[in-house]
Predict the structure.
Amino acid sequence: MPGLLPSSKAHLGSHRIRLGGFFLSVLTSAALAAMPSVQEEYRLGQQLFVGDIDLQGRIRTHLADLPPDVVRCGNCHAAASGPEVPRSLAPRLTRNLLLERRPRRGGPSSSYSLASFCKLLRIGVDPAYVLISLEMPQYTLDDAHCLALWRFLTWSENAPKSQ
Ligand code: HEC
């Protein structure tokens, strides 16, 4: 039949389009699945904070890193409404402490963003460019670990998604 060939070609073509769409959606969902969710980032941040995963840090003026056990955040800081750290002068790290504008260390009012939080951890300068005291270690950490710590300390289910 003369009419068969063109119409079956057209049919095949539409299959191809549908298959293309199928592979595109498989690829998109694979890419999304590879991205950690906020909950996964939060969990990673918690593990870094309590020392289940090692951090690399040192006293700002020293040339060598301290043992990971010494530089875990939870040695000095309480987080959110968690238990107090006995005999520590370090502030309790809460969402409000970080996100609210307030004077810190005698400087002008400031609040943290992800970028200024990472800068504080890496070079010891706060959002108002005031140097933090030497007791607070300086860390070598990648963006994913910094984001995870930030999520752990600032995430709330009611918060806008952009944080
Ligand atoms: C050895 C103790 C110690 C450890 C470990 C430590 N900190 Fe600190 N941290 C301090 C002290 C003390 C301060 C207050 C310093 C100041 O005010 O100059 C501080 C201040 C901070 C601040 C500033 C709060 C503000 O209001 O400006 C943040 C944020 C912070 N620490 C996060 C962390 C995180 C996250 C970790 C782990 C990656 C960590 N700290 C580990 C002692 C510590």
In short: DSSP finds six helices and four strands in the chain. The first strand starts at residue 57 and ends at 58.
